[in-house]
Amino acid sequence: MSLNDDERWMRKALAVATAKGSNPNSSSIGCVIVRDGHIIGAAHNECQTLHDATAHAEMVAFRRAGVESADADNLGGELRGATLYSTLQPCGMCTMASIWSKVSRIVFGAGREDVHRMSFEARHINTLDFISEAYRDDLTFTGGVLRDECAQLYYADDTSYLPIGKKIYKPRPFSYAAINGHTQWRPVEAHARGVQAAASDFYIQIGR
Fold first, then answer.
1. What is the CATH number of domain 3-201?
2. What is the rounded radius of gyration, in angstroms, for the C-alpha atoms of the chain?
3. Active-site entry in 7, 46, 58, 68
4. Integer angstrom CA distances of residue 114 from 35, 70, 121, 144, 154
5. CA distance 114 to 88
6. Tens place of pLDDT per residue across the chain (208 aa)
């Protein structure tokens, strides 16, 4: 898929993140799942709405896409051939859900370095390790699509994101995980050298 296509769908995710009903106090994260040029699942963070700590945007979108995709041959709602677009790099839970759902590709906007001062938990966990451990050599991981626009969601004005308060987003110069100059990570190419080597070589900066 081209960069223009990725930006197109990421803009859809941005629209979902800020749509009516989204709650900035539970993080304005938007996610769309796309297959064959169509959105088959879309959601924003609904943890507070559903009183469910696992109702991240990606998790809710997986459930909706699974229902949309289910048929007699796919009762489990697997999402082979689909691409997940999220305004923020998926957490460990959502990355593992991506593996189990069989999506083919993960694309995110803002990364950990962009929100490392926010009150997100488990940001020290590198989700790339999970992918490598799971031997998903058919899953690609692309970051930094509309990075600045996505990061703005997490540096809102006012006191919307208590206890953080107002922050001004200033992008830091760093490079997303790259192979041959592309912001894409292929676990199969790195796994032979071991998970730790892969994490070192193809690392998404998280401010360590």
1. 3.40.140.10
2. 16
3. 58
4. 28, 36, 14, 10, 8
5. 9
6. 677 999 999 999 999 998 865 555 556 899 999 999 999 999 999 988 899 999 999 999 999 999 998 887 787 889 999 999 999 999 888 998 999 999 999 999 998 777 655 555 555 566 777 776 776 777 888 999 999 999 888 765 444 444 444 444 444 444 444 333 333 433 333 333 333 333 333 333 333 2
Extents of the domains making up the chain: 3-201
Burial class (CB in 10 A: 0-12, 13-18, 19+), 198: buried
C-alpha 54/C-alpha 188 separation (Å) is: 29
Identify whether the C-beta of residue 130 lies closer than 8 Å to the C-beta of residue 94.
no
Specify whether 133 is catalytic. no
